[in-house]
Amino acid sequence: PTGTPERVVMVTFDDARREALRLGTAVAQDFNTTFLMHVPVGHVDHDSYTSSWEQMKAAQATGRWRFGSHLMEAHEVLHMESDNSVIHPLANRLWLAAPNRLETENEYDARIKYEYQRSREIMQQKLGGAADIIAYPMGDLGQETRSDMPEALTVNLREAAANYKTGFIQSQFGYAVNGDNPLLYQRHELGRLPGAEAVEYLLRNHPVFLAHRLRAEYAAQEGKIYKSKDALAQLRQDGYPTNAYNKVASYVYERLTGVRTTPVGISKVTKGPFHLELKDPYVGVRAEYLKDNLDSRNWRLLGLGGLNLTPNITVEGTAGIGRMQQAFTNNLALNGPEIRLDERTVGVAPAVKFPNGWVLLGELSDRHFTGKVPTDLNGHTANFDKTVIQYAAEAQIKPLLPLDVAARWEHDIVPSARAALKDTTYNAGTLAAAYRLFDWWDLNASGTRYMFSDSNNRNHLMAESLWLLYEPAGFRLGLRYEYTSADEASPDYWTPYKLNRYYLEAFFRRTYRRIYYNIGVRYGLGKESLRPEAKRKYQEDLQQLQQSLRTARSRRFSPATIRNFQHYIDVLLANPIEEPGWEPVLGLVAATRIKLGGHWELNGEVSYNRLPDYNSLNLLGGIKFKF
Fold first, then answer.
1. Across 597-609, average pLDDT
2. Backbone phi and psi for residue 152, each to the nearest 5 degrees, phi listed first
3. d(CA 11, CA 299)
4. Which ranges of 222-296 would DSSP assign to H, the alpha helix?
5. CB–CB of 465/448 below 8 Å?
6. Of 372, 415, 369, 371, the residue nearest 388 (C-alpha)
7. CA–CA separation, 430 vs 411, rounded Å?
8. CA distance 171 to 156
9. CB proximity list for 183: less than 8 A, separation 6 or greater
10. E strand segments, 375-474
11. pLDDT tens-digit series, residues 42-62
12. Are 319 and 346 in contact (CB under 8 A)?
């Protein structure tokens, strides 16, 4: 109705204690309000601390007190004779001493009816008025604790409805909202909180505050930066206590940035992020497979195990076997011998998460390759024995809330048996960034430079824009650009020249319960430029043939020889070397991670890429058991 304040509070008391009436009257007068006292009717005039009916009448006359029922004897906590367990009288049948047995159901029903009806009748007689408000002793009608009466709640509400209009139970929050059953309004016992803390507690547990708080926290858990900010802005606008707002804002920020925090309700943390604490061990198996049209066929099978050394430091160890296979020559039509290198590897991968949420990853492994490999096309072989130390370091930081940046440096052998046979390794540096423009719009970019030990270099650039169009399924559409170029051509590994690709991409990516999935397709057009050396070779071949023809004519070579030179010239002129045109390019990816029970985790990924003059297939899979 018009004039109702936005926030209304009702202050209630139980047990009709004398000091509550004596001290509370002055407080109610100071605040120009009325308090509500619930009376344990069966105790009035029978003990020293419960107010008498005369004292209650005097308090009622001040206009600062209203009175409700606290029933007859039901506010007494009793114990079962059989096991001395605590029971609440409204929710349980009582033990009858004289017959030495429990109440029957009929006796229970009669007692409950007496509690409600008789308490109301006495209050009307003694204090007058409607006497239509009740506070259920201990707030328990059979919904809170153990009960040997399945219909206890139904019986109590039936009798309450027959005698009263309003009833109070106890809860953590103590708020009534539209739609609540008026016989089950919630109230909260504040204890001995000082006034300011009591007000803050009430506002901190206000349904609207809790709603905005949950929205902000859930959004933060989902990584939704702007939705979290909107919910926090609404909290601030609604005028809730600064301290309560700051706690929510701090949690949201820490969740979004990965900052290590003190859990809610913990005033002191005795173990820091780098305190030695061995926990969360796991073991597992991981398998990898690569195949491309350069005839590379590589696989590895690794056993792994790891654990947390401290709350912020983890370490994983790996050991396994593998193989790299590839034809000895890049001319596959020759059907020549094959290179087969067997691998044994052992490694370690530490990870450190700093208190500010930044992450540092490391990798170090010993990769030992052996095999009897061909040295020519005539069947000659030699023993091959080579060890490569693979290492990598990666830093992941968040300089701004919507910005993630990663930098990586790695050293390894080129994943090609022909390149490995020539001892070709590489160093690679990568810089990647992801910016969340809105919760539904992500911008991604990365650059990588490979520096090969054979003096070659290869550069990769990528820029991407992704839009979340249907959140329930995690459906995203995007545009993607990629550029790759190697300084020199190599027959042993992928070395495109100024390869540009433009993609339209679509993804389904989300976590549903205990399953994460990422299924996507990219389709577009790609164009690779012609290397300058290819153009030069064409011109050199044509000029050489033309010079040979002139020489043959001047020296009067046989007509057949002259015709041959002319034929080769005509063939070259009829097939001039030209820049390649635009060709379709395709990328497919499907990845999943599944948690089974409390210990098992499965993961798998398959990806396929088809580009001008190159295609590749990658398979990854693993299983992990967490103790």
1. 96
2. -60, -45
3. 73
4. 225-237, 242-257
5. no
6. 369
7. 12
8. 18
9. 157, 160, 161, 164, 166, 167
10. 381-400, 403-413, 425-438, 441-452, 457-470
11. 999 888 899 999 999 999 999
12. yes
Closest CA to 490 of 256, 296, 336, 352: 296
Distances (CA, A) of 213 to 206, 207, 236, 247, 483: 10, 10, 11, 10, 45
Q: Interior CA angle at 506 toward 484 and 593, to 5°?
A: 95
SS3 341: strand
- DSSP classification of residue 336: -
Query: Could you give the CA distance from residue 160 to residue 132 in angstroms, rounded to a whole number?
Result: 9
Q: What is the mean pLDDT of residues 517-532?
A: 95
The three-state secondary structure class of 310 is strand
Q: What percent of the chain has pLDDT over 90?
A: 66
Q: What's the rounded Cα separation, in Å, for the pair 387 and 371?
A: 12
Q: Which two tokens stand for residue 552?
A: 């043959």
2 has pLDDT over 70: no
Quick one: DSSP state of residue 190? -
Q: What is the DSSP letter of 131?
A: -
DSSP 333: G
Neighbour-count burial of 365, counting CB atoms closer than 10 A to its CB (0-12 exposed, 13-18 middle, 19+ buried): buried
Do the Cβ atoms of 205 and 186 come closer than 8 Å?
no
**Residue 216 phi, psi (nearest 5):** -65, -45
Token readout for 178 is 């539209």
